[in-house]
Write a structure and sequence with these properties.
Strand order of the largest sheet: 3-4-5-8-7-6
Structural class: mainly beta
Largest sheet: 6 strands, antiparallel, barrel
Radius of gyration: 18 Å
Strand content: over 45%
Oligomer: single chain
Distance between the termini: 11 Å
Number of helices: 4
Length: 203
């Protein structure tokens, strides 16, 4: 899966990064943490606390019509999916969030839950199926002042500076159960697979 990434050190900030990760079991936010490896600490609570305001949980709903085969009757089936996103900016009217294209590709409705667990309706602004990225937006006029005070726009860096062996922290809405945190390392770069020709990062 493609994972949006940011880099924050345990004791000092380092350059954050957008990465794509070949990991079929996780869809969330990946952070490269130079400071953690320097101190050899497994405590990433400070990193999680700093980054959580930039991470959102995404819920999508889609309706599919199918033919029952009797007398031309059709029925509708509603399905629900989930994913993660990261707040990357805002304009005069909208808050901009990046996520995976496959999360929102077939969505009829999209909603976003912020760090304060408040949920807002979102719209798909643009998609790129080749890189499996999408931008969704929430109207600023819909977001309460209290929520705005608790969220944070992430700083985006350069994935070319990433090194194999660096420790990473993954934060996201894993399997739709809500935000979670886990750690690992970058095990390889420039991976490709049969569904995505864009180079991936393996963790």
């Amino acid at each position: 899966n493609n994972i949006i990434t940011k880099c924050i050190g345990h004791h000092e900030e380092c350059n954050p990064t957008i990465l794509k990760v070949n990991n079929d079991s996780y869809n969330g936010l990946l952070l490269v943490t130079d400071g953690v490896t320097d101190s050899m600490s497994l405590d990433v609570s400070d990193i999680a606390e700093n980054v959580m305001p930039s991470v959102v949980s995404i819920t999508i709903k889609s309706v599919t019509e199918y033919n029952a085969g009797f007398f031309g009757q059709t029925y509708e089936y509603e399905s629900e999916g989930s994913g993660s996103g990261i707040i990357i900016g805002e304009n005069d009217e909208e808050l901009l969030i990046v996520t995976n294209n496959h999360v929102v590709a077939d969505a009829d409705t999209v909603s976003v839950a912020f760090i304060d667990e408040e949920v807002y309706e979102a719209k798909v602004k643009g998609t790129d199926s080749d890189s499996d990225l999408a931008i969704i937006v929430v109207d600023l006029e819909d977001i309460s002042a209290d929520t705005m005070s608790k969220i944070r726009i992430a700083t985006i860096g350069n994935s070319d500076e990433l090194k194999v062996g660096e420790q990473v922290v993954a934060i996201g809405n894993a399997l739709g159960y809500g935000q979670s945190v886990t750690t690992g390392i970058v095990s390889a770069k420039n991976r490709t697979n049969e569904t995505n020709s864009t180079p991936l990062i393996q963790t």
